[in-house]
Amino acid sequence: PLVLGIESSCDETGIGIVRGTQLLANTVSSSMDEHVRFGGVIPEIAARAHLEAFVPTLEQALAEADVTLEEIDAIAVTSGPGLAGALMVGVAAAKALALATGKPLYGINHLVAHVGVGVLEGSVLPPTFGALLVSGGHTEILKVTSLTNDVQLLGATIDDAAGEAYDKTARLLGLGYPGGPAIDKAAKDGDKKAFRFPRGLSLPKFVGSAEEPGKHRNNFSFSGLKTAVARCVEHFEAAGEPIPVADISASFQEAVVDVITSKAVRAMQENGLKTLLLGGGVAANTRLRELLAARCASAGITLVVPPFSLCTDNGGMVAALGAQLVAAGAEPSGLDFATDSSQPVTNIVLEPRS
Ligand code: ATP
Ligand code: MG
Ligand code: FE
């Protein structure tokens, strides 16, 4: 099927067009630059930017794919999770398109789309596989039995997401926004063993108690790490010494990546999963890719990492999941669905209101 995908959950307006598992166009317009001076995404500014960018982004994608709206078989749009106002712009636009063209509309889960993108670009995924989703808003380990109707949450962060930890730590170190790429770069000149920062929820006492064994086995926590970095910075400031930004960056990064990779690999082993798909914006991190590849290799797990342009928010991933839903004969969502800012990863496609 020829499917149009619309993404507007955060600061990227994305329109993607796929035919089956072939990506025909993937146009993204980001409002990132407008948020830089605030040190984070401002929801109202993001929503307004989507309104501005929607039609030009759509026209560019259609031209690039060399298809017309009439030729499209179905439309898929991110219904959640994400920023409420930002989601509403994309969903309202998608409904208008569906109404005008008579095409079926699917309201789909952004997180599952981050995983569904793995079917593009010739990657072959087995029927059941694991996924590690690391982004600005989420850090989750998933078991995917069927992309279109069975995604199970094995573990998630109980406080900050990995990308959020990078962004907050970068601010502490005066590295600016977005923090992920800045820390990744600074860490290259640092010693990752200079400081031993905490690995959240990995000590036996946090992993589970007698009453709740293994409660946090697959969960993450990054707020203690952020505090440890803050204390470390204060220590140097109080002593009137220069802050060793490169060493702190490298040590912080190692703490994040060590705990993410070891928990993900262990969860794969404990659930008998042989393939792991890495997704989300933090998948761009060089140390994460390196350590995850090494740990997957020694555990006999096949690691699938989509190209970076498909890991960050884009419409192609929404179209990819939409095409899977059409192929599986899933029922469209109709035109009456709302957005769901905290749509759980287990809710893959919104059902029509009866
Ligand atoms: P969600 O998908 O949870 O709604 P999001 O879509 O906003 O969140 P993404 O756009 O997928 O998140 O990723 C953005 C995050 O990725 C930011 O927090 C950014 O700092 C981080 N990031 C980007 N590049 C790197 C990198 N090289 N190393 C670490 N983090 C990175
Ligand atoms: Mg983003
Ligand atoms: Fe995302």
Task: Write structural notes for this entry.
This protein is 42% helix and 18% strand. The chain has helices spanning 32-35, 43-65, 84-101, 110-116, 162-172, 179-187, 204-207, 223-238, 245-270, 286-299, 308-311, 315-327; strands at residues 2-7, 12-19, 22-30, 74-80, 105-109, 129-134, 139-146, 150-156, 275-279, 302-304. The strands form 2 sheets. It has a 5-stranded mixed beta sheet, with helices on both faces. Strand 6 (129-134) and strand 7 form a beta hairpin. The radius of gyration is 21 Å and the shape is globular. The two termini are 26 Å apart. Bound molecules: adenosine-5'-triphosphate (ATP), magnesium ion (MG) and fe (iii) ion.
List keywords for this structure.
binds magnesium ion, binds fe (iii) ion, acyltransferase, five-stranded mixed β-sheet, iron, cytoplasm, alpha/beta, globular, 354 residues, 12 helices, Gcp-like_dom, KAE1/TsaD, binds adenosine-5'-triphosphate, 10 strands
Brief overview, please?
It is found in: Cytoplasm. The protein has helices spanning 32-35, 43-65, 84-101, 110-116, 162-172, 179-187, 204-207, 223-238, 245-270, 286-299, 308-311, 315-327, and strands at residues 2-7, 12-19, 22-30, 74-80, 105-109, 129-134, 139-146, 150-156, 275-279, 302-304.
